[in-house]
């Protein structure tokens, strides 16, 4: 197998691994959202651990894709990946192209969920700041 074919095979596998990884990431981000709303610290910690590991793996695959794009001198913008996909034989090209488009949609869904989770965290932070500014006697005494 030529170096070109090996690199294309690595990229194809990475795209498929990213599809799996981002599906898991979406699942864990959903769990994190539920845990944030319920203020379940143990579940939040567990979800964050999984999210960090999944993001680290996705980052490693993205760096590897960037190196392959450099080897083929295709650049690093969004068109570069389209050019790389164009190097596959027609049958594989269709599969890789579809997987890549699905991956982009998965990334967008994860970004949206991450934004919502960030807003929940910001809301929690605001609540804690408000509580910290109040007179302790008012915070811990029953209201009448």
UniProtKB/TrEMBL annotation:
Domain of life: Bacteria
Keyword terms, alphabetized: Bacterial flagellum biogenesis, Cell projection, Cilium, Flagellum
GO biological process, one term: bacterial-type flagellum assembly
Gene3D superfamilies xref list: FlgN-like (1.20.58.300)
InterPro entries: FlgN-like, FlgN-like_sf
Reported function: Required for the efficient initiation of filament assembly.
Protein family (similarity comment): Belongs to the FlgN family.
Name the UniProt record assigns to this protein: Flagella synthesis protein FlgN
Annotated organism of origin: Pseudomonas deceptionensis
